[in-house]
Amino acid sequence: xxxxxxxxxxxxxxxxxxxxxxxxxxxxxxxxxxxxxxxxxxxxxxxxxxxxxxxxxxxxxxxxxxxxxxxxxxxxxxxxxxxxxxxxxxxxxxxxxxxxxxxxxxxxxxxxxxxxxxxxxxxxxxxxxxxxxxxxxxxxxxxxxxxxxxxxxxxxxxxxxxxxxxxxxxxxxxxxxxxxxxxxxxx
Length: 187
Ligand code: 5GP
Known about the structure:
The chain is an alpha/beta fold. It contains seven helices and nine strands; from the N terminus they run βαβββαββαβαβααβα.
């Protein structure tokens, strides 16, 4: 079975979640992977839907037992994608999208070179800083930490297969659709 795995990354506040949701609404046959995280759920988040929320000990145990396809620490929390989960989805014939940060994306590419890496870029660093502050979901220290990650991520984006600028939402969704459709033709 020739199923595709797409990895979408983008700095916090770049709106990659919104672009991805827009894409998934129009293309519901794609499956969004659910990650494990040690981060506490936000008020609107549900376990098993947005993430599998696990303890640091559980996460560490998975790392030691090599259960993650990729994992990374991001702004003080750990995030990872289970190998078993991905393999099951691929066996079920699903095309999967992972929404993860760049260190994890690079690990996926190493283990599965056929994976397609797409980076959603902000029009500028300043736009991104404003968007991140405008969300009002994190305190100042968390925002500062996330902005540090942003700089590193923009550098890592240079080695992605595709970069899509999220200036206008509809255009970004359309471009993502075009990229994915083009890649699906190669299957
Ligand atoms: P948030 O805490 O805002 O939900 O996510 C923080 C960052 O972690 C985002 O950049 C998100 O894409 C990334 N992330 C979510 N799940 C995973 C994962 O399984 N692995 C990695 N490496 N990053 C993830």
